[in-house]
Batch of 2 targets.
Target 1
Amino acid sequence: MNLEREPAAATADIGLEMPAITTMGVVGAGQMGNGIAHVAALAGLSVTMIDVNPAALEKAMTTIARNMDRQVARKIITPEDKEAALARIRTATDYAAFAECDLVIEAATEKEEIKRAIFKSLTPHLKPGCLIASNTSSISITRLAATTDRPEKFIGMHFMNPVPVMKLVELIRGIATDEPTFQAIQALATRLGKTTAVAEDYPAFIVNRILVPMINEAVYAIYEGVGSVSAIDTAMRLGANHPMGPLELADLVGLDTCLSVMQVLHEGLADTKYRPCPLLVKYVEAGWLGRKTGRGFYDYSQTPPRPTR
Ligand code: NAD
Protein backbone atom coordinates (compact mmCIF):
# COMPACT_ATOMS: atom_id res chain seq x y z
CA MET A 1 0.00 0.00 0.00
CA ASN A 2 1.29 3.48 -0.86
CA LEU A 3 1.38 5.72 2.18
CA GLU A 4 3.03 8.66 0.48
CA ARG A 5 1.05 11.87 0.62
CA GLU A 6 -0.44 12.39 -2.82
CA PRO A 7 -0.07 15.86 -4.32
CA ALA A 8 -3.26 17.90 -4.53
CA ALA A 9 -4.87 17.05 -7.85
CA ALA A 10 -6.48 19.60 -10.13
CA THR A 11 -10.23 19.21 -10.44
CA ALA A 12 -10.29 19.06 -14.23
CA ASP A 13 -13.60 20.63 -15.15
CA ILE A 14 -13.52 23.62 -12.81
CA GLY A 15 -9.80 24.20 -12.37
CA LEU A 16 -9.98 24.19 -8.55
CA GLU A 17 -7.65 22.22 -6.28
CA MET A 18 -9.05 18.95 -4.98
CA PRO A 19 -7.67 18.32 -1.47
CA ALA A 20 -5.66 15.08 -1.03
CA ILE A 21 -6.84 12.83 1.78
CA THR A 22 -4.29 10.63 3.55
CA THR A 23 -5.15 11.13 7.23
CA MET A 24 -8.65 10.62 8.55
CA GLY A 25 -10.40 11.08 11.90
CA VAL A 26 -13.51 9.08 12.81
CA VAL A 27 -15.90 10.25 15.57
CA GLY A 28 -17.94 7.39 17.06
CA ALA A 29 -16.48 3.88 17.16
CA GLY A 30 -19.76 1.95 16.96
CA GLN A 31 -20.87 -0.38 14.17
CA MET A 32 -20.34 2.21 11.44
CA GLY A 33 -17.27 3.99 12.83
CA ASN A 34 -15.30 0.77 13.15
CA GLY A 35 -16.29 -0.27 9.62
CA ILE A 36 -15.24 3.08 8.17
CA ALA A 37 -11.88 2.90 10.01
CA HIS A 38 -11.46 -0.68 8.71
CA VAL A 39 -11.90 0.14 5.00
CA ALA A 40 -9.92 3.40 5.23
CA ALA A 41 -6.92 1.73 6.92
CA LEU A 42 -6.93 -1.10 4.35
CA ALA A 43 -6.87 1.55 1.60
CA GLY A 44 -3.69 3.02 3.14
CA LEU A 45 -5.07 5.97 5.12
CA SER A 46 -3.91 6.76 8.66
CA VAL A 47 -6.98 6.70 10.91
CA THR A 48 -7.66 8.08 14.38
CA MET A 49 -10.91 7.01 16.09
CA ILE A 50 -12.55 8.88 18.96
CA ASP A 51 -15.55 7.88 21.08
CA VAL A 52 -17.04 9.25 24.33
CA ASN A 53 -17.09 5.70 25.60
CA PRO A 54 -13.57 4.21 26.02
CA ALA A 55 -15.08 0.69 26.04
CA ALA A 56 -16.47 1.34 22.53
CA LEU A 57 -12.94 2.11 21.29
CA GLU A 58 -11.58 -1.14 22.71
CA LYS A 59 -14.49 -3.10 21.26
CA ALA A 60 -14.03 -1.42 17.86
CA MET A 61 -10.36 -2.49 17.65
CA THR A 62 -11.31 -6.09 18.52
CA THR A 63 -14.13 -6.05 15.94
CA ILE A 64 -11.87 -4.65 13.21
CA ALA A 65 -9.21 -7.33 13.87
CA ARG A 66 -11.89 -10.07 13.85
CA ASN A 67 -13.47 -8.80 10.62
CA MET A 68 -10.06 -8.56 8.95
CA ASP A 69 -9.35 -12.16 10.04
CA ARG A 70 -12.46 -13.17 8.13
CA GLN A 71 -11.18 -11.35 5.05
CA VAL A 72 -7.82 -13.12 5.42
CA ALA A 73 -9.59 -16.50 5.69
CA ARG A 74 -11.50 -15.69 2.48
CA LYS A 75 -8.26 -14.56 0.79
CA ILE A 76 -9.68 -11.06 0.19
CA ILE A 77 -6.61 -9.60 1.95
CA THR A 78 -3.27 -11.06 3.06
CA PRO A 79 -2.15 -11.37 6.72
CA GLU A 80 0.42 -8.63 5.91
CA ASP A 81 -2.36 -6.30 4.65
CA LYS A 82 -4.19 -6.91 7.93
CA GLU A 83 -1.17 -6.16 10.13
CA ALA A 84 -0.26 -3.04 8.12
CA ALA A 85 -3.87 -1.76 8.25
CA LEU A 86 -4.21 -2.36 12.00
CA ALA A 87 -0.95 -0.47 12.56
CA ARG A 88 -2.48 2.53 10.75
CA ILE A 89 -5.41 2.81 13.21
CA ARG A 90 -5.05 4.53 16.55
CA THR A 91 -7.60 5.54 19.14
CA ALA A 92 -7.80 8.78 21.10
CA THR A 93 -10.08 10.53 23.58
CA ASP A 94 -9.31 14.15 22.74
CA TYR A 95 -10.08 16.05 19.50
CA ALA A 96 -6.54 17.48 19.62
CA ALA A 97 -5.55 14.12 18.05
CA PHE A 98 -7.30 15.28 14.83
CA ALA A 99 -4.89 18.21 14.28
CA GLU A 100 -3.25 16.65 11.20
CA CYS A 101 -6.41 15.17 9.64
CA ASP A 102 -7.36 15.93 6.03
CA LEU A 103 -10.89 14.65 6.70
CA VAL A 104 -13.00 13.89 9.77
CA ILE A 105 -16.00 11.59 9.40
CA GLU A 106 -18.64 11.80 12.11
CA ALA A 107 -20.36 8.46 12.78
CA ALA A 108 -21.80 9.04 16.27
CA THR A 109 -25.30 8.26 17.53
CA GLU A 110 -28.15 9.41 15.24
CA LYS A 111 -29.29 12.37 17.38
CA GLU A 112 -29.01 15.88 16.02
CA GLU A 113 -28.10 17.45 19.39
CA ILE A 114 -25.24 14.95 19.84
CA LYS A 115 -23.88 15.66 16.35
CA ARG A 116 -24.18 19.44 16.81
CA ALA A 117 -22.24 19.26 20.10
CA ILE A 118 -19.55 17.13 18.43
CA PHE A 119 -19.05 19.60 15.55
CA LYS A 120 -18.87 22.52 17.99
CA SER A 121 -16.11 20.87 20.05
CA LEU A 122 -14.32 19.42 17.05
CA THR A 123 -13.78 22.31 14.65
CA PRO A 124 -11.35 24.41 16.75
CA HIS A 125 -8.88 21.49 16.60
CA LEU A 126 -8.88 21.05 12.81
CA LYS A 127 -6.46 22.54 10.31
CA PRO A 128 -8.15 25.07 7.97
CA GLY A 129 -8.24 22.72 4.94
CA CYS A 130 -9.68 19.74 6.80
CA LEU A 131 -12.93 18.44 5.28
CA ILE A 132 -15.81 17.22 7.47
CA ALA A 133 -18.25 14.47 6.50
CA SER A 134 -21.23 13.10 8.37
CA ASN A 135 -22.37 9.49 8.06
CA THR A 136 -25.86 10.50 9.25
CA SER A 137 -28.68 8.29 7.99
CA SER A 138 -31.23 11.06 7.79
CA ILE A 139 -30.36 14.46 9.29
CA SER A 140 -30.06 17.57 7.08
CA ILE A 141 -26.48 18.04 5.85
CA THR A 142 -27.12 21.75 5.35
CA ARG A 143 -28.22 22.14 8.99
CA LEU A 144 -25.27 20.12 10.37
CA ALA A 145 -22.86 22.05 8.12
CA ALA A 146 -24.17 25.34 9.49
CA THR A 147 -22.98 24.36 12.98
CA THR A 148 -19.37 24.34 11.73
CA ASP A 149 -16.91 27.05 10.69
CA ARG A 150 -16.62 25.51 7.16
CA PRO A 151 -20.01 24.63 5.60
CA GLU A 152 -18.38 24.66 2.13
CA LYS A 153 -16.07 21.81 3.22
CA PHE A 154 -18.89 19.76 4.77
CA ILE A 155 -20.64 16.84 3.05
CA GLY A 156 -22.81 13.76 3.71
CA MET A 157 -20.87 10.51 3.17
CA HIS A 158 -23.36 7.79 3.99
CA PHE A 159 -21.83 4.31 4.21
CA MET A 160 -23.97 1.16 4.45
CA ASN A 161 -23.78 -1.50 7.18
CA PRO A 162 -21.61 -3.63 7.29
CA VAL A 163 -19.14 -1.16 5.75
CA PRO A 164 -16.44 -3.66 4.63
CA VAL A 165 -19.07 -5.65 2.70
CA MET A 166 -21.58 -3.15 1.32
CA LYS A 167 -20.63 -1.47 -1.94
CA LEU A 168 -22.65 1.76 -1.80
CA VAL A 169 -21.79 5.18 -0.45
CA GLU A 170 -24.46 7.86 -0.79
CA LEU A 171 -23.04 11.37 -1.26
CA ILE A 172 -25.12 14.33 -0.15
CA ARG A 173 -24.15 17.94 -0.82
CA GLY A 174 -25.35 20.57 1.63
CA ILE A 175 -26.44 23.86 0.08
CA ALA A 176 -22.93 25.30 0.66
CA THR A 177 -20.78 22.25 -0.21
CA ASP A 178 -18.17 23.29 -2.77
CA GLU A 179 -17.10 21.28 -5.82
CA PRO A 180 -13.52 20.43 -4.68
CA THR A 181 -14.97 18.91 -1.49
CA PHE A 182 -17.47 16.86 -3.47
CA GLN A 183 -14.78 15.67 -5.92
CA ALA A 184 -12.35 14.77 -3.13
CA ILE A 185 -14.96 12.71 -1.26
CA GLN A 186 -16.14 10.99 -4.43
CA ALA A 187 -12.51 10.09 -5.26
CA LEU A 188 -12.04 8.78 -1.71
CA ALA A 189 -15.16 6.59 -1.96
CA THR A 190 -13.77 5.10 -5.19
CA ARG A 191 -10.40 4.54 -3.51
CA LEU A 192 -12.22 2.64 -0.72
CA GLY A 193 -13.71 0.34 -3.39
CA LYS A 194 -17.22 1.82 -3.19
CA THR A 195 -19.75 2.91 -5.79
CA THR A 196 -21.44 6.25 -5.17
CA ALA A 197 -25.00 7.46 -5.65
CA VAL A 198 -25.71 11.17 -5.29
CA ALA A 199 -28.75 12.21 -3.27
CA GLU A 200 -30.25 15.63 -2.68
CA ASP A 201 -30.34 16.91 0.89
CA TYR A 202 -33.90 15.89 1.82
CA PRO A 203 -34.77 13.85 4.94
CA ALA A 204 -33.16 10.36 4.92
CA PHE A 205 -31.79 10.88 1.36
CA ILE A 206 -32.45 7.92 -1.02
CA VAL A 207 -31.72 4.57 0.64
CA ASN A 208 -33.37 5.25 3.99
CA ARG A 209 -36.26 7.26 2.50
CA ILE A 210 -37.32 3.99 0.88
CA LEU A 211 -35.91 1.31 3.21
CA VAL A 212 -36.82 2.55 6.69
CA PRO A 213 -40.55 3.16 5.98
CA MET A 214 -40.62 -0.46 4.75
CA ILE A 215 -39.09 -1.59 8.06
CA ASN A 216 -41.59 0.60 9.96
CA GLU A 217 -44.43 -0.98 7.93
CA ALA A 218 -43.14 -4.46 8.88
CA VAL A 219 -43.29 -3.42 12.57
CA TYR A 220 -46.89 -2.21 11.99
CA ALA A 221 -47.64 -5.65 10.51
CA ILE A 222 -46.56 -7.28 13.81
CA TYR A 223 -48.36 -4.56 15.84
CA GLU A 224 -51.63 -5.13 14.00
CA GLY A 225 -51.29 -8.93 14.16
CA VAL A 226 -50.91 -9.40 10.41
CA GLY A 227 -48.06 -11.85 10.98
CA SER A 228 -45.39 -13.03 13.43
CA VAL A 229 -41.76 -11.90 13.21
CA SER A 230 -40.71 -15.08 11.41
CA ALA A 231 -43.76 -15.05 9.09
CA ILE A 232 -43.02 -11.45 8.02
CA ASP A 233 -39.29 -12.10 7.46
CA THR A 234 -39.93 -15.38 5.61
CA ALA A 235 -42.58 -13.68 3.46
CA MET A 236 -40.25 -10.89 2.40
CA ARG A 237 -37.20 -13.14 1.92
CA LEU A 238 -38.99 -15.66 -0.25
CA GLY A 239 -41.85 -13.53 -1.58
CA ALA A 240 -39.92 -10.40 -2.53
CA ASN A 241 -36.50 -12.09 -2.90
CA HIS A 242 -34.91 -9.82 -0.29
CA PRO A 243 -31.66 -11.28 1.12
CA MET A 244 -32.85 -10.47 4.67
CA GLY A 245 -36.32 -9.98 6.11
CA PRO A 246 -37.17 -6.39 7.20
CA LEU A 247 -37.11 -7.27 10.91
CA GLU A 248 -33.73 -9.02 10.73
CA LEU A 249 -32.52 -5.97 8.86
CA ALA A 250 -33.99 -3.63 11.52
CA ASP A 251 -32.02 -5.55 14.18
CA LEU A 252 -28.86 -5.21 12.08
CA VAL A 253 -29.32 -1.46 11.55
CA GLY A 254 -30.29 -0.83 15.21
CA LEU A 255 -33.84 -0.05 16.27
CA ASP A 256 -32.79 3.30 17.79
CA THR A 257 -31.39 4.35 14.41
CA CYS A 258 -34.56 3.15 12.61
CA LEU A 259 -36.72 5.17 15.03
CA SER A 260 -34.57 8.29 14.65
CA VAL A 261 -34.82 8.05 10.85
CA MET A 262 -38.65 7.73 11.03
CA GLN A 263 -38.79 10.76 13.36
CA VAL A 264 -36.69 12.81 10.92
CA LEU A 265 -38.95 11.75 8.01
CA HIS A 266 -42.10 12.48 10.03
CA GLU A 267 -40.94 15.92 11.15
CA GLY A 268 -39.06 16.84 7.98
CA LEU A 269 -41.79 15.90 5.49
CA ALA A 270 -44.78 16.60 7.78
CA ASP A 271 -46.70 13.63 6.42
CA THR A 272 -48.50 11.19 8.73
CA LYS A 273 -47.56 8.28 6.47
CA TYR A 274 -44.14 8.43 8.17
CA ARG A 275 -45.40 8.11 11.77
CA PRO A 276 -43.16 5.72 13.74
CA CYS A 277 -44.94 2.53 14.82
CA PRO A 278 -45.67 2.61 18.60
CA LEU A 279 -44.21 -0.91 18.89
CA LEU A 280 -40.89 0.32 17.46
CA VAL A 281 -40.94 3.13 20.05
CA LYS A 282 -41.63 0.59 22.81
CA TYR A 283 -38.72 -1.68 21.81
CA VAL A 284 -36.35 1.32 21.83
CA GLU A 285 -37.68 2.47 25.22
CA ALA A 286 -36.98 -1.05 26.55
CA GLY A 287 -33.38 -0.82 25.30
CA TRP A 288 -34.06 -3.69 22.87
CA LEU A 289 -32.05 -2.12 20.06
CA GLY A 290 -31.27 -5.23 17.97
CA ARG A 291 -28.00 -7.10 17.51
CA LYS A 292 -25.89 -4.46 19.22
CA THR A 293 -27.69 -5.03 22.55
CA GLY A 294 -28.34 -8.77 22.04
CA ARG A 295 -32.11 -8.38 21.67
CA GLY A 296 -34.50 -6.74 19.24
CA PHE A 297 -37.08 -8.51 17.10
CA TYR A 298 -34.85 -11.56 17.68
CA ASP A 299 -33.12 -12.76 20.85
CA TYR A 300 -29.44 -13.25 19.96
CA SER A 301 -28.55 -15.14 23.16
CA GLN A 302 -29.88 -18.26 21.37
CA THR A 303 -28.52 -19.98 18.25
CA PRO A 304 -30.24 -19.56 15.89
CA PRO A 305 -31.67 -16.25 17.17
CA ARG A 306 -35.23 -16.71 18.47
CA PRO A 307 -38.06 -14.36 17.35
CA THR A 308 -39.36 -12.29 20.27
CA ARG A 309 -42.94 -12.22 18.89
P1 NAD B 1 -23.74 2.82 17.26
O1 NAD B 1 -24.74 2.97 18.34
O2 NAD B 1 -23.21 1.45 16.94
O3 NAD B 1 -22.45 3.73 17.55
C1 NAD B 1 -22.52 5.09 17.86
C2 NAD B 1 -21.25 5.44 18.65
O4 NAD B 1 -21.21 6.86 18.85
C3 NAD B 1 -21.22 4.79 20.04
O5 NAD B 1 -20.00 4.06 20.22
C4 NAD B 1 -21.28 5.99 20.99
O6 NAD B 1 -20.54 5.81 22.20
C5 NAD B 1 -20.66 7.09 20.12
N1 NAD B 1 -20.96 8.44 20.57
C6 NAD B 1 -22.13 8.91 21.07
N2 NAD B 1 -22.00 10.21 21.39
C7 NAD B 1 -20.72 10.57 21.09
C8 NAD B 1 -19.97 11.77 21.21
N3 NAD B 1 -20.51 12.86 21.71
N4 NAD B 1 -18.68 11.76 20.81
C9 NAD B 1 -18.12 10.64 20.32
N5 NAD B 1 -18.77 9.47 20.19
C10 NAD B 1 -20.05 9.43 20.57
O7 NAD B 1 -24.39 3.49 15.97
P2 NAD B 1 -24.04 3.22 14.41
O8 NAD B 1 -24.97 2.19 13.89
O9 NAD B 1 -22.57 3.05 14.27
O10 NAD B 1 -24.49 4.62 13.78
C11 NAD B 1 -23.63 5.74 13.77
C12 NAD B 1 -24.09 6.72 12.70
O11 NAD B 1 -24.08 6.06 11.43
C13 NAD B 1 -25.50 7.27 12.89
O12 NAD B 1 -25.54 8.59 12.42
C14 NAD B 1 -26.32 6.34 12.00
O13 NAD B 1 -27.51 6.93 11.59
C15 NAD B 1 -25.36 6.15 10.85
N6 NAD B 1 -25.59 4.94 10.02
C16 NAD B 1 -25.97 3.77 10.59
C17 NAD B 1 -26.18 2.66 9.79
C18 NAD B 1 -26.60 1.33 10.40
O14 NAD B 1 -27.04 0.44 9.65
N7 NAD B 1 -26.46 1.14 11.70
C19 NAD B 1 -25.98 2.73 8.41
C20 NAD B 1 -25.55 3.95 7.85
C21 NAD B 1 -25.37 5.05 8.68
Note: The chain has two domains: 7-199, 208-307.
Target 2
Amino acid sequence: MSDESRHSPAQMLPHTRANTRTAVVIPAAGRGVRLGPGAPKALRALGGTPMLIHAVRAMAASRRVSLVVVVAPPDGAAEVKSLLDAHALPEWTDFLVVPGGESRQESVRLGLDALPPEYDIVLVHDAARPLVPVDTVDTVIEAVREGAPAVVPALPLADTVKQVEPAAVPGEPEPVVATPERARLRAVQTPQGFDRETLVRAHGTVTENVTDDASMVEQLGLSVVVVPGHEEAFKVTRPLDLVLAEAVLARRRLNDGF
Ligand code: C5P
Protein backbone atom coordinates (compact mmCIF):
# COMPACT_ATOMS: atom_id res chain seq x y z
CA MET A 1 0.00 0.00 0.00
CA SER A 2 1.39 3.43 -0.94
CA ASP A 3 1.74 6.22 1.60
CA GLU A 4 -0.88 8.23 -0.23
CA SER A 5 -3.53 5.53 -0.12
CA ARG A 6 -2.76 4.85 3.53
CA HIS A 7 -3.56 8.46 4.34
CA SER A 8 -6.55 8.97 2.01
CA PRO A 9 -9.34 11.01 3.67
CA ALA A 10 -11.62 7.97 4.01
CA GLN A 11 -8.97 6.09 5.97
CA MET A 12 -8.26 9.02 8.25
CA LEU A 13 -11.93 8.81 9.30
CA PRO A 14 -11.99 5.16 10.42
CA HIS A 15 -15.78 5.03 10.86
CA THR A 16 -16.60 6.51 7.47
CA ARG A 17 -17.53 3.99 4.79
CA ALA A 18 -16.20 4.82 1.36
CA ASN A 19 -17.09 3.03 -1.90
CA THR A 20 -20.25 1.61 -0.44
CA ARG A 21 -23.08 -0.02 -2.34
CA THR A 22 -26.63 0.34 -1.10
CA ALA A 23 -29.54 -2.06 -1.48
CA VAL A 24 -33.12 -1.66 -0.23
CA VAL A 25 -35.36 -4.44 1.06
CA ILE A 26 -39.08 -3.66 0.79
CA PRO A 27 -41.27 -6.02 2.84
CA ALA A 28 -44.56 -6.05 0.94
CA ALA A 29 -45.99 -9.39 1.98
CA GLY A 30 -48.60 -8.15 4.47
CA ARG A 31 -52.33 -8.34 3.89
CA GLY A 32 -53.06 -4.93 5.39
CA VAL A 33 -56.34 -5.94 7.03
CA ARG A 34 -56.74 -2.54 8.78
CA LEU A 35 -57.30 -0.97 5.38
CA GLY A 36 -60.44 -3.09 4.90
CA PRO A 37 -61.16 -6.00 2.55
CA GLY A 38 -59.67 -6.17 -0.96
CA ALA A 39 -56.25 -6.63 -2.56
CA PRO A 40 -53.10 -6.94 -0.39
CA LYS A 41 -52.22 -3.44 0.86
CA ALA A 42 -49.09 -3.05 -1.26
CA LEU A 43 -51.10 -3.67 -4.41
CA ARG A 44 -53.82 -1.09 -3.66
CA ALA A 45 -53.86 1.72 -6.21
CA LEU A 46 -52.83 5.28 -5.37
CA GLY A 47 -53.43 7.73 -8.19
CA GLY A 48 -54.01 4.70 -10.44
CA THR A 49 -50.61 3.09 -9.61
CA PRO A 50 -50.07 0.31 -7.04
CA MET A 51 -48.72 1.56 -3.71
CA LEU A 52 -45.77 -0.84 -4.04
CA ILE A 53 -44.70 0.77 -7.33
CA HIS A 54 -44.73 4.19 -5.64
CA ALA A 55 -42.58 2.77 -2.83
CA VAL A 56 -40.13 1.14 -5.26
CA ARG A 57 -39.86 4.37 -7.27
CA ALA A 58 -39.31 6.37 -4.08
CA MET A 59 -36.30 4.18 -3.22
CA ALA A 60 -34.93 3.95 -6.77
CA ALA A 61 -35.18 7.74 -7.04
CA SER A 62 -31.96 7.86 -5.02
CA ARG A 63 -28.89 7.63 -7.24
CA ARG A 64 -27.19 5.84 -4.37
CA VAL A 65 -29.60 2.89 -4.44
CA SER A 66 -28.43 0.25 -6.91
CA LEU A 67 -30.66 -2.71 -5.94
CA VAL A 68 -34.25 -2.98 -4.68
CA VAL A 69 -35.41 -6.35 -3.31
CA VAL A 70 -39.19 -6.61 -3.08
CA VAL A 71 -40.52 -9.23 -0.67
CA ALA A 72 -43.83 -10.33 -2.13
CA PRO A 73 -46.77 -12.23 -0.59
CA PRO A 74 -45.70 -15.93 -0.53
CA ASP A 75 -48.18 -16.81 -3.29
CA GLY A 76 -47.78 -13.54 -5.21
CA ALA A 77 -44.13 -13.32 -6.30
CA ALA A 78 -44.93 -13.88 -10.00
CA GLU A 79 -47.64 -11.22 -9.90
CA VAL A 80 -45.31 -8.70 -8.25
CA LYS A 81 -42.57 -9.50 -10.77
CA SER A 82 -44.88 -8.75 -13.71
CA LEU A 83 -46.08 -5.60 -11.95
CA LEU A 84 -42.48 -4.31 -11.74
CA ASP A 85 -41.89 -5.27 -15.39
CA ALA A 86 -44.99 -3.33 -16.42
CA HIS A 87 -43.95 -0.03 -14.81
CA ALA A 88 -41.19 2.36 -15.76
CA LEU A 89 -38.34 2.24 -13.21
CA PRO A 90 -34.93 3.96 -13.22
CA GLU A 91 -32.26 2.16 -15.22
CA TRP A 92 -29.50 2.63 -12.64
CA THR A 93 -31.33 0.29 -10.24
CA ASP A 94 -31.66 -3.53 -10.35
CA PHE A 95 -34.74 -5.30 -9.01
CA LEU A 96 -35.30 -8.68 -7.39
CA VAL A 97 -38.53 -10.25 -6.15
CA VAL A 98 -38.56 -12.93 -3.41
CA PRO A 99 -41.49 -14.61 -1.60
CA GLY A 100 -42.13 -13.37 1.96
CA GLY A 101 -42.98 -15.03 5.26
CA GLU A 102 -45.50 -15.15 8.08
CA SER A 103 -44.34 -11.99 9.84
CA ARG A 104 -42.78 -8.73 8.69
CA GLN A 105 -39.56 -9.77 10.42
CA GLU A 106 -39.40 -13.07 8.54
CA SER A 107 -40.11 -11.24 5.28
CA VAL A 108 -37.20 -8.84 5.92
CA ARG A 109 -34.90 -11.76 6.74
CA LEU A 110 -35.85 -13.51 3.49
CA GLY A 111 -35.06 -10.27 1.64
CA LEU A 112 -31.66 -10.05 3.36
CA ASP A 113 -30.91 -13.67 2.42
CA ALA A 114 -31.37 -12.74 -1.25
CA LEU A 115 -28.80 -9.90 -1.22
CA PRO A 116 -25.67 -10.40 -3.32
CA PRO A 117 -22.42 -10.03 -1.32
CA GLU A 118 -21.31 -6.67 -2.75
CA TYR A 119 -23.91 -4.62 -0.86
CA ASP A 120 -22.66 -3.28 2.46
CA ILE A 121 -25.47 -0.82 3.31
CA VAL A 122 -29.07 -2.04 3.53
CA LEU A 123 -32.20 0.04 3.85
CA VAL A 124 -35.48 -1.52 4.94
CA HIS A 125 -38.54 0.31 3.69
CA ASP A 126 -42.23 -0.48 4.21
CA ALA A 127 -44.24 -0.76 1.01
CA ALA A 128 -46.92 0.95 3.08
CA ARG A 129 -44.93 4.24 2.99
CA PRO A 130 -45.21 5.00 -0.72
CA LEU A 131 -44.57 8.75 -0.68
CA VAL A 132 -41.29 9.18 1.20
CA PRO A 133 -39.24 11.95 -0.49
CA VAL A 134 -35.83 11.13 -1.96
CA ASP A 135 -34.12 13.61 0.38
CA THR A 136 -35.14 11.47 3.35
CA VAL A 137 -33.73 8.34 1.64
CA ASP A 138 -30.44 10.14 0.95
CA THR A 139 -30.21 11.51 4.50
CA VAL A 140 -30.52 7.98 5.92
CA ILE A 141 -27.91 6.54 3.53
CA GLU A 142 -25.52 9.41 4.29
CA ALA A 143 -25.72 8.81 8.04
CA VAL A 144 -24.88 5.10 7.58
CA ARG A 145 -22.03 6.06 5.26
CA GLU A 146 -20.77 8.37 7.99
CA GLY A 147 -20.45 5.35 10.28
CA ALA A 148 -23.74 4.84 12.17
CA PRO A 149 -24.63 1.12 12.37
CA ALA A 150 -28.37 1.91 12.36
CA VAL A 151 -30.29 5.03 11.33
CA VAL A 152 -34.00 5.80 11.58
CA PRO A 153 -35.88 8.78 10.17
CA ALA A 154 -38.34 10.13 12.71
CA LEU A 155 -40.55 13.08 13.59
CA PRO A 156 -41.51 14.76 16.86
CA LEU A 157 -45.01 13.91 18.10
CA ALA A 158 -47.99 16.24 17.86
CA ASP A 159 -50.02 14.26 20.41
CA THR A 160 -49.13 13.61 24.01
CA VAL A 161 -48.67 9.84 24.54
CA LYS A 162 -50.01 7.82 27.49
CA GLN A 163 -48.80 4.42 28.51
CA VAL A 164 -51.80 2.34 29.62
CA GLU A 165 -52.70 -1.03 31.06
CA PRO A 166 -54.48 -2.42 27.96
CA ALA A 167 -58.13 -3.41 28.61
CA ALA A 168 -59.05 -7.05 28.13
CA VAL A 169 -62.11 -5.94 26.16
CA PRO A 170 -61.50 -3.33 23.40
CA GLY A 171 -63.31 -0.06 24.12
CA GLU A 172 -63.33 -0.49 27.93
CA PRO A 173 -61.62 2.35 29.94
CA GLU A 174 -57.87 1.70 30.34
CA PRO A 175 -55.87 2.84 33.41
CA VAL A 176 -53.02 5.24 32.63
CA VAL A 177 -49.64 3.98 33.85
CA ALA A 178 -47.37 6.84 32.76
CA THR A 179 -47.03 9.93 30.55
CA PRO A 180 -43.60 10.00 28.85
CA GLU A 181 -42.18 13.49 28.25
CA ARG A 182 -43.37 14.33 24.75
CA ALA A 183 -40.31 16.40 23.82
CA ARG A 184 -38.13 13.28 24.13
CA LEU A 185 -40.35 11.06 21.96
CA ARG A 186 -40.09 10.51 18.19
CA ALA A 187 -42.38 8.67 15.80
CA VAL A 188 -40.17 6.53 13.60
CA GLN A 189 -40.60 5.95 9.89
CA THR A 190 -38.81 4.07 7.15
CA PRO A 191 -36.50 3.65 5.27
CA GLN A 192 -34.32 2.60 8.17
CA GLY A 193 -30.67 2.24 7.19
CA PHE A 194 -28.09 -0.27 8.41
CA ASP A 195 -24.60 -1.50 8.09
CA ARG A 196 -25.47 -4.83 6.43
CA GLU A 197 -23.47 -7.03 8.77
CA THR A 198 -25.14 -5.43 11.80
CA LEU A 199 -28.66 -5.99 10.47
CA VAL A 200 -27.92 -9.59 9.48
CA ARG A 201 -26.54 -10.23 12.98
CA ALA A 202 -29.62 -8.61 14.56
CA HIS A 203 -31.96 -10.82 12.52
CA GLY A 204 -29.94 -13.88 13.48
CA THR A 205 -29.97 -13.02 17.19
CA VAL A 206 -33.31 -11.44 18.10
CA THR A 207 -36.17 -13.92 17.89
CA GLU A 208 -39.07 -12.09 19.57
CA ASN A 209 -41.46 -10.13 17.40
CA VAL A 210 -40.61 -6.43 16.98
CA THR A 211 -42.29 -3.66 15.01
CA ASP A 212 -39.13 -2.12 13.58
CA ASP A 213 -35.70 -3.35 12.55
CA ALA A 214 -33.73 -0.73 14.46
CA SER A 215 -35.04 -2.03 17.79
CA MET A 216 -33.34 -5.36 17.03
CA VAL A 217 -30.03 -3.50 16.70
CA GLU A 218 -30.75 -1.72 20.01
CA GLN A 219 -31.15 -5.17 21.57
CA LEU A 220 -27.63 -6.01 20.42
CA GLY A 221 -26.47 -3.04 22.50
CA LEU A 222 -25.40 -1.03 19.45
CA SER A 223 -26.23 2.60 18.92
CA VAL A 224 -29.14 3.66 16.76
CA VAL A 225 -29.44 7.29 15.65
CA VAL A 226 -32.43 9.30 14.53
CA VAL A 227 -32.34 11.70 11.56
CA PRO A 228 -35.18 14.03 10.49
CA GLY A 229 -38.07 12.18 8.85
CA HIS A 230 -40.74 13.73 6.64
CA GLU A 231 -44.49 14.18 7.04
CA GLU A 232 -45.03 12.64 3.59
CA ALA A 233 -43.32 9.43 4.74
CA PHE A 234 -46.46 8.47 6.72
CA LYS A 235 -47.67 4.86 6.71
CA VAL A 236 -50.85 4.04 4.83
CA THR A 237 -52.66 1.97 7.41
CA ARG A 238 -56.30 3.02 7.62
CA PRO A 239 -58.81 4.16 4.96
CA LEU A 240 -58.27 7.83 5.89
CA ASP A 241 -54.55 7.47 5.08
CA LEU A 242 -55.51 6.58 1.49
CA VAL A 243 -57.42 9.89 1.23
CA LEU A 244 -54.36 11.77 2.53
CA ALA A 245 -52.03 9.91 0.15
CA GLU A 246 -54.25 10.77 -2.83
CA ALA A 247 -54.20 14.43 -1.74
CA VAL A 248 -50.39 14.46 -1.49
CA LEU A 249 -50.12 12.92 -4.97
CA ALA A 250 -52.59 15.45 -6.40
CA ARG A 251 -50.57 18.32 -4.88
CA ARG A 252 -47.33 16.91 -6.32
CA ARG A 253 -48.90 16.62 -9.78
CA LEU A 254 -50.14 20.20 -9.54
CA ASN A 255 -46.70 21.45 -8.49
CA ASP A 256 -45.01 19.45 -11.27
CA GLY A 257 -47.34 21.10 -13.77
CA PHE A 258 -45.96 24.55 -12.99
O1 C5P B 1 -48.77 -4.46 8.99
P1 C5P B 1 -47.77 -3.36 8.90
O2 C5P B 1 -48.36 -2.11 8.29
O3 C5P B 1 -46.98 -3.09 10.13
O4 C5P B 1 -46.71 -3.88 7.81
C1 C5P B 1 -45.53 -3.17 7.55
C2 C5P B 1 -44.90 -3.72 6.29
O5 C5P B 1 -44.50 -5.09 6.45
C3 C5P B 1 -45.86 -3.69 5.08
O6 C5P B 1 -45.17 -3.15 3.97
C4 C5P B 1 -46.22 -5.16 4.91
O7 C5P B 1 -46.51 -5.50 3.55
C5 C5P B 1 -44.97 -5.88 5.38
N1 C5P B 1 -45.21 -7.27 5.84
C6 C5P B 1 -44.50 -8.31 5.22
N2 C5P B 1 -44.71 -9.62 5.60
C7 C5P B 1 -45.63 -9.92 6.54
C8 C5P B 1 -46.35 -8.87 7.19
C9 C5P B 1 -46.10 -7.54 6.82
O8 C5P B 1 -43.68 -8.07 4.33
N3 C5P B 1 -45.86 -11.20 6.83
Note: The pocket of cytidine-5'-monophosphate is lined by residues 27-30, 41-42, 71, 100-104, 107, 126-128, 237 (CB under 6 Å).
